[in-house]
Amino acid sequence: MRKFFILSFLIYNFFHLEITFGSSNVLKSPPNVPSPITRKTSKVVNIELNVQEKIGELIEGVQYSYWTFNGTVPGPMIRVRVGDTVKIKLNNPQGGRFPVALDIHGANIPLGGASISLTPPGKSATFSFKATRAGLFFYQSSAPPVAMQVANGLFGMIFVSPKNGLPAVDKEFYLVRSEFYTSGNFGNQGIQSFNMSNALAGKADYVVFNGSALSLVDKNSLKIKKGEKLRLFIGNIGPSLPATFRISGGYFTNALIPSKNSKYENKTLLFTPPGGTHVVDLSFDHIGDYRLLDQSILN
Q1: Contact by Cβ (8 Å): 250, 284
Q2: Of 169, 43, 48, 155, which Cα lies nearest the Cα of 103?
Q3: Which of 34, 87, 245, 248 has the most crowded CB, counting CB atoms within 10 A?
Q4: Torsion over CA of 59, 63, 68 and 70, rounded to 10 degrees?
Q5: CA-CA distance, 132 to 139, in Å (whole number)?
Q6: Strand intervals (E) in 93-154
Q7: Rounded distance, CA 109 to CA 101, Å?
Q8: Is the CB of residue 51 less than 8 Å from the CB of residue 68?
């Protein structure tokens, strides 16, 4: 019931949607999304990811010792184009707890790059891959203990755009659902750390979007105007539990397959296993409050 309660607290709160396109940078911190790519040729895209430990607020009065890429959970969203060569530099600071290694789910190289990017504390590693397939993919640390590194926040997303891009929309944003397994019981005040026993049992203490129950509500709520088309880059990193995303009062259409025959055309549910992602469009015809929720209520 702890999972259901925190999902109610986070997702069932009224959820307003607002995002503005930033600069054309290929990296943006959540919930922001890098601008659509308009160039017609491929290029080498240089990315730098820094492992950083950071104390943040999981819910009000409860802090967590996050492990992050570039200081956020999830790490920054990366946007490239089919045909680009993506060159990534991974930095693990002196005094880090563990080696890290980067697994790009959409990289067609051994272990997604994890075998060539193992980076001990105080070291850096650089590797490249060619973006050959369009889609939205997770990247994550894949060094032992993998479950601990992912559950602590070492994950993010990369979007490989089709060569001709996607249909234009008014606003886009980036959402990742994840679980936290804490040393203290649900609601215990103070700084919490990872609890391996709860993780192995699949007993999530907190299930949140973008690393915190506070990330997308109240002053951080997101807004769109009536009739505007919204695009979501959304996924579930887990690391253990599936999710079924639903926007109460809205419909999803797969942005990568813009066809009336698409299995995602006007769908109300998105079943999402750990590691699953979706690029979906939606719009709202009426003024009001809409809720993003997980229909897997008791999982």
Answers
A1: yes
A2: 155
A3: 245
A4: 90
A5: 16
A6: 102-104, 123-130, 135-141
A7: 14
A8: yes
Enter the DSSP assignment of 36.
P
d(CA 232, CA 172): 6
* Amino acid symbol at 7: L
Separation between Cα atoms, residue 9 and residue 1, nearest integer Å? 12
**Pair of tokens at residue 141:** 């640390």
DSSP state of 133: S
Q: Are strands 85-92 and 123-130 parallel, antiparallel or unpaired?
A: antiparallel
d(CA 157, CA 174): 9
Residues 6+ apart with CB under 8 A from 245: 177, 234, 236, 269, 270, 272, 278, 292, 293, 294, 295
Using an 8 Å Cβ cutoff, are 19 and 63 in contact?
no
Q: What is the value of pTM for the model shown?
A: 0.89
Instruction: Tell me the pLDDT of the chain (299 aa) as tens digits.
Output: 334 333 322 323 334 443 333 334 789 999 999 999 999 999 999 999 999 999 999 988 999 999 999 999 999 999 999 999 999 999 999 988 899 999 999 999 999 999 999 999 999 999 999 999 999 999 999 999 999 999 999 999 999 999 999 999 999 989 999 999 999 888 789 899 899 999 988 889 999 999 988 887 777 777 777 788 899 999 999 999 999 988 877 888 888 875 555 555 668 889 999 999 999 998 877 777 777 777 776 65
Could you give the CA distance from residue 213 to residue 217 in angstroms, rounded to a whole number?
8
CB 142 within 8 A of CB 204: no
Q: The tokens of 119 are what?
A: 């980076």
DSSP-H helix ranges across 95-241: 146-151, 196-201
Q: Give the number of other Cβ atoms within 10 Å of residue 95's Cβ.
A: 8
